[in-house]
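> forwarded from #structure-qc
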């Protein structure tokens, strides 16, 4: 059982849950985590199903105000088939017909009761039947893959632990991460803070060029042969075939089976809407998990697991970041296939194209770079699929964060504050016609 929570010394659960459920009050998330005895998987399912304890009104919503009587017993979910044939993934995603939509509203509508089913195990050959993704095995030449994993084992020894401000506390993620860029002078931001970045080494750049050629070829294939790609047409603001270039790499280290990262989608602030992300696995083989963002009309929510071996390339095409959450779940040691050089350690290099120059990212009322998000939980809304900017939140007294040094930005431990900044991103939501270059 994966224990984690807002209480005690382990706050990793809070760090993973808050980004996944931005529309649910933090007090409700912490209450659900408590009622599930810190079991992160049970908490996620309870929140998706709407089975979280009621929060009393009329008094401050704090964890200490919750009582044991507010726990709600979870009813056992009916067993369902986990065969691949039983998973009816949507063939197309909605077409945006109202780009001039009215003001955004966060009011939630009642949703149908969703039943949970165990993760469906996919393979590289059938992954694209269920997800807007593709996997290529043995992608890099063996000599390059071996040299790169050897280099990253040395580099990863000094990777920092990601830190976030959640529920007025600083929390850490149970893995290590580092951003690399070919242009060391460029600025990249995450959660309103300037990222600590390193110069991409030569071997990483060499791998990036091979990955760029492959990604652009696959983009061209999907655009010109829609009969073999069922995940909906491209949008006019997406990267066109031949234009995708990896200029940023996020490296993640999972040293043991205990290391993990919770369900999330990659931040759109620097990548822009509907990005393409290519993920190269080096080292140990372990499950990689996808979960569809539930919609009010969904009666079931699907979770998919796929094992990613050493030197495999997983491309996440649009609209993967908008429609799905991905994670590296905590597993038993028997579920990890060691690598001769890495043992149980898995190193993941995610090659990305940063399309939004820092100077074009709007500032919120706090003075921080805002965060790009999308309306994704209500497909009945006229604003469904639209993108907007909002405050990322940060520590009180951190008004200059983003313009401070990394060391200064990490020293603040005040309570989290979030302003009411909101701005729609102006985009042309038309589809790209088949055959257009």
């Amino acid at each position: 059982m994966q224990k984690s929570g807002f209480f005690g010394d382990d706050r990793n659960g809070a760090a993973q849950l808050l980004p996944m459920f931005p529309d649910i009050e933090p007090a409700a998330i912490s209450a659900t985590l408590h009622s599930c005895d810190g079991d992160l998987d049970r908490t996620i399912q309870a929140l998706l199903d709407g089975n979280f304890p009621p929060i009393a009104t009329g008094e401050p919503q704090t964890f200490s105000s919750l009582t044991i009587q507010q726990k709600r017993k979870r009813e056992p979910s009916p067993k369902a088939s986990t065969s691949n044939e039983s998973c009816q993934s949507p063939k197309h995603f909605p077409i945006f017909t109202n780009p001039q939509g009215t003001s955004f509203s966060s009011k939630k509508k009642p949703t149908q009761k969703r039943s949970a089913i165990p993760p469906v195990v996919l393979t590289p050959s059938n992954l694209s039947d269920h997800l807007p993704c593709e996997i290529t095995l043995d992608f890099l030449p063996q000599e390059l893959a071996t040299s790169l994993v050897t280099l990253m084992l040395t580099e990863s020894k000094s990777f920092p632990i990601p830190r976030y401000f959640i529920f007025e506390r600083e929390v850490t993620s149970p893995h290590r991460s580092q951003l690399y860029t070919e242009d060391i002078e460029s600025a990249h931001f995450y959660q309103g803070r300037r990222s600590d970045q390193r110069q991409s080494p030569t071997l990483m750049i060499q791998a990036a060029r091979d990955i760029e050629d492959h990604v652009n070829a696959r983009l061209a294939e999907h655009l010109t042969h829609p009969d073999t790609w069922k995940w909906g047409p491209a949008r006019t603001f997406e990267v066109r075939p031949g234009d995708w270039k990896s200029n940023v790499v996020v490296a993640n280290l999972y040293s043991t089976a205990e290391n993990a990262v919770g369900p999330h989608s990659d931040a759109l602030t620097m990548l822009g809407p509907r990005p393409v992300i290519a993920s190269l696995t080096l080292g140990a083989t372990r499950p990689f998990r996808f979960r569809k963002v539930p919609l009010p009309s969904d009666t079931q929510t699907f979770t998919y697991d796929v094992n990613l071996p050493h030197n495999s390339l997983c491309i996440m095409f649009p609209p993967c970041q908008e429609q799905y959450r991905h994670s590296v779940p905590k597993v038993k040691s028997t579920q990890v296939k060691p690598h001769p050089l890495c043992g149980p350690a898995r190193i993941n290099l995610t090659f990305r194209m940063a399309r939004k120059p820092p100077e074009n990212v709007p500032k919120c009322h706090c003075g921080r770079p805002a965060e790009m998000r999308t309306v994704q939980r209500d497909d009945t809304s006229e604003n469904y699929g639209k993108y907007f900017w909002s405050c990322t939140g940060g520590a009180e007294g951190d008004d200059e964060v983003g313009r401070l040094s990394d060391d200064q930005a990490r020293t603040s431990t005040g309570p989290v504050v979030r302003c009411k900044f909101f701005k729609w991103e102006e985009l042309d939501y038309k589809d790209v016609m088949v055959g257009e270059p």
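QC bot note: Residues 1-10, 55-109, 395-414 have pLDDT under 50 and may be disordered. Residues 387 and 426 are 8 Å apart (CA to CA).
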